[in-house]
Amino acid sequence: WRRPWIRACSKGKKGLKRKATAEEPQEAAVAENGAMESGVQPPKAAAFPPGFSISEIKNKQRRHLMFTRWKQQQRKEKLAIKKKLKKEREALGDKAPPKPIPKTIDNQRVYDETVVDPNDEEVAYDEATDEFASYFNRQTSPKILITTSDRPHGRTVRLCEQLSTVIPNSHVYYRRGLALKKIIPQCISRDFTDLIVINEDRKTPNGLILSHLPSGPTAHFKMSSVRLRKEIKRRGKDPTEHVPEIILNNFTTRLGHSVGRMFASLFPHNPQFIGRQVATFHNQRDYIFFRFHRYIFKSEKKVGIQELGPRFTLKLRSLQKGTFDSKYGEYEWIHK
Amino acid sequence: MAAAGARWNHVWVGTETGILKGVNLQRKQAANFTAAGQPRREEAVSALCWGAGGETQILVGCADKTVRYFSTEEGRFQGHRHCPGGEGTFRGLAQVDGTLITCVDSGIVRVWRDNDKETSSDPLLELSVGPGVCRMRQDPARPHVVATGGKENALKVWDLQGSEEPVFRAKNVRNDWLDLRVPIWDQDIQFLPGSQKLVTCTGYRQVRVYDPASPQRRPVLEATYGEYPLTAMTLTPEGNSVIVGNTHGQLAEIDLRQGRLLGCLKGLAGSVRGLQCHPSKPLLASCGLDRVLRVHRIRNPRGLEHKVYLKSQLNCLLLSGRDNWEDEPQEPQEAKQVSPEDTETDELWASLEAAAKRKLPDSEPPPGAVQPRRRKKQRPGSTST
Q1: Average confidence (pLDDT) per 10 residues, chain A, 336 residues
Q2: How far is A265 from chain B (nearest CA, A)?
Q3: HSE-CB of A43 using CA atoms within 13 angstroms
Q4: Helix (H), strand (E) at residue B353
Q5: With B172 labelled, which of A72, B114, B239, B309 sits at a CA distance of 20 to 30 A?
Q6: Is the CATH number of domain A121-334 2.60.40.10?
Q7: Predicted ipTM?
Q8: Which Gene3D superfamilies does the UniProt record give (chain B) (predicted)?
């Protein structure tokens, strides 16, 4: 006794068409023996008991066959619906309703109430008197110290060198196993404004700690997708000593404002447009993409860009109030 | 408008920019109150406490060593008082019998006479508690008893009416298993109701219970939680457990009978600066550096009730302990309208009103009915007009 619906599909569609005539008498014979109620019809319309799913078929080949048949049917139906809609739209002509906007992750996002309103006085006061106020009031100019975790490997060292060419007025120092808490008072006494520590794991840089020095917040980022200069295709010549322009994209929430200001305070105020260099921090879905380009205006509206310099993505792990103190410091925001 | 409804605010929060925010959870509104009309970072609020006479007055301790008086009935600051002495911000503020008790970072505790708020007379009493104070708390049952503790400053209980020596001075625990001295860092203190016991939470992740009534000066119970310093603590309504918060925004309920963790509360993303439980309802208000005020329900079921984004970093909070969470309808305004001097004009108006009512019986609703005021849901953090 064999279940008639399996026999109906076992030969495949081509097989069924070829052997339809041959099979029918066989099936009829089988039907007399086996269950009558399952409708032994021509192979196309096989009746399945309710609650049957293709995944219950134990035989892989037959299961695959059933699945491909089902998929082709679904595709056909979808195409038919699309065609019908298109016809209807053409028939209506001008009166057709506007095309619906496709749903994207950015469209479907829940409104974030922490997005900063540009006219907000409270936030404006907060920013005017926070730790970066002295930079934004042009009272201090940045001086950066770049270092790594202990015993860095080649990639990390090269990344530090390249970063120091990108960020003006920055100095790279070798970390000789010194504790950050001891480095920080020394930096403050030598008038450094920011400290960047590139953390390394298994010969690749994977973390970045950015600490604003006199008393400022410390941001800890996860760094990924690091590309050094020689790994960037179609790149331009090495960056010059000109001060680059900065682009900060999508730092809209209150936390984004704090982080954006941290990045802005790394670079001196007056960009030298002669150098035509620009550093971009683009925030999208909480990932910050860093790129360094040289641009040239070919005409009024056409721009050409060459990517120079290193490229990496950052994701904020925590923002700590005060200089680096991961054990006893108070955190303003932690990724949870 | 916000000033008129200020008495119905459920939570009062002090910020680092000097703004006192009143949050009404029923209407989902937050209003800003500043003494000078502009936020000022020099007036960063470091301590809040209820003033005399129920919950009608709030004492706001600012970073410039002034204590400002805020009236919730009128919704504005009434006066301020300069409380000099010592260095650092206020770590504790309390009021008893018309006197004001202040404690600053450097350990000077002063008791001031609470007359005509503008005069800064000499303090009635001054105590030196020791440097590095993190908290001074007043015993709600015995208002003249305060406890102080801080970084390398052991817990001491002082009786302000008694002698200059502390009533109870805690002793440090024994040296640890490496025979090293265990450091002290008492971040928050609470008095347990119904007995003389105190609970402290430390920056070294410990929660300790002390009993001055027992001969032992060392802690009676010690429990540890988490990996980060505990910054704030509050007692739950039943009095058997405390809820602590740490610098990572983790809130945990710890049972004081066994010293075990009962459960955690999720949601905070920044360091917890202020915690307070409601005296009868299972509600917990928490505020922190992530600029959001959260109200959690502690049991059946444990979870977040309200979340309000307030744009500045929040330093301390006061939760109203009243039982009815609803606003009172416009009764106070109607009560004010009747004044004894206008009886003649009242009779005149009464006769006119009666005539008007005879003509148009259906136009007006009866005056005594509660008119529900439908307000548009305003965004929290809107400034008061």
Answers
A1: 56 46 45 45 62 89 95 97 91 82 87 88 91 92 94 95 94 93 94 95 95 93 95 92 94 94 94 94 94 94 93 96 91 93
A2: 21
A3: 24
A4: helix B343-359
A5: B239
A6: no
A7: 0.79
A8: YVTN repeat-like/Quinoprotein amine dehydrogenase
